[in-house]
Design brief:
Helix 5 packs antiparallel against helix 6, helix 5 runs parallel beside helix 7 and helix 6 runs antiparallel to helix 7. The radius of gyration is 35 Å and the shape is rod-shaped. The chain contains 8 helices and 7 strands. It has 325 residues and is of the alpha+beta class. Strands 2-1-3-7-6-5-4 form a 7-stranded mixed beta sheet, with helices on both faces. The protein is 59% helix and 14% strand.
């Protein structure tokens, strides 16, 4: 699908067999384009439209380059967070003269939001460079929002793990599984955020070094790019900090598991020690050999019971006094 935005263009869909693209269109958005739509853009804008395979390349030379006066840039945008399957999708940007062409095979939430804003406020896409930095601003804002949500969820996880009361820190297996799953999901989301932030930062660095940005007429765009670079750098550092904190929470959760296991083994250990002497006594006097003088004792049975009780209570009191149980 091919949509155009700009003064006098509010997201109109252009037919692939059209003769031309409106001159007032400053942002040309290709969503899952057909070969005919790509050919129309290439003919009217005089640029090559990158294919999906070319945008999937990770080498900077394939993602960031200049050709025939046009800037070709690809950024990995975050998507799928609301569906609980976060991933990244490449978005290609071709900045030629005063027009911006975007190529994408998915629709991340920031792009949908920017589309609606561009329809209401055409000044956001008054020219190609302005449309580019405004769209990147929306993508970076989305990353910031997701980092904030991850931080809030980490606070909840921390409260679940580090309860004030010892009994409250004993997490049942079902809750523990849910806790570890939540930690893993947040770590996966942070990984995707960091990847998107690094990709965006590389693109901004390339864009900031281009001749177009250093043009005297693009002073506002140049300042905006510098601000976005600072923002995305801070987001990357914050995401790294949160990732380290999640690793700490994971280690703490596993530590709680070890404590519970050790407590269970400790219980079985002292229980075995307490009940071993009575069992030994019962085993000795339970033998049925013919020549056992104890079989003729008048008070042998009550004495054995008392002896078994003393042998069980004695170790228990000793362990209790030492604070082992």
């Amino acid at each position: 699908m091919l949509r155009v935005y700009g003064p006098g263009c509010d997201g109109s869909v252009i037919d692939a067999h059209a003769q031309r693209i409106p001159d007032e269109a400053t942002w040309i958005d290709l969503e899952e384009p057909t070969r005919e739509e790509e050919a129309l853009v290439e003919r009217c804008i005089s640029v090559d439209v990158p294919t999906q395979a070319e945008m999937a390349e990770i080498e900077p030379s394939s993602r960031l380059y200049e050709q025939n006066g046009a800037l070709y840039m690809t950024v990995s945008a975050l998507r799928g967070v609301d569906e609980r399957h976060p991933t990244t999708t490449p978005i290609g940007f071709v900045l030629a003269s005063n027009r911006l062409v975007t190529i994408r095979y998915a629709t991340p939430k920031p792009v949908r939001n920017f589309e609606s804003h561009a329809r209401r406020d055409p000044d956001l896409v008054r020219d190609g460079p302005t449309a580019l930095v405004r769209l990147l601003d929306t993508i970076i804002d989305r990353l910031a929002d997701e980092i904030e949500h991850v931080s809030e969820r980490m606070e909840e996880l921390s409260q679940q793990i580090f309860q004030e009361q010892q009994d409250q820190r004993r997490i049942p297996a079902e809750r523990l599984t849910k806790l570890l799953t939540s930690i893993g999901r947040n770590q996966t989301l942070l990984t995707k955020i960091r990847y998107s932030a690094v990709s965006t930062l590389r693109m901004l660095s390339f864009f900031a070094g281009s001749n177009l940005v250093h043009d005297e007429k693009q002073k506002e765009v140049r300042h905006h790019v510098a601000s976005l670079t600072t923002d995305v750098t801070s987001l990357g550092e914050h995401a790294t900090f949160l990732s380290d904190s999640l690793t700490f929470l994971l280690d703490a959760s596993l530590g709680l598991i070890s404590i519970e296991q050790n407590a269970a083994m400790k219980l079985f250990s002292w229980a075995a020690v307490v009940f071993l002497p009575p069992t030994l006594i019962a085993g000795i006097f339970g033998m049925n050999f013919h020549h056992m003088p104890e079989l003729n004792w008048r008070f042998g049975y009550p004495i054995s019971l008392v002896l078994m009780l003393v042998s069980a209570v004695g170790p228990y009191l000793y362990f209790k006094k030492r604070g082992w149980i």
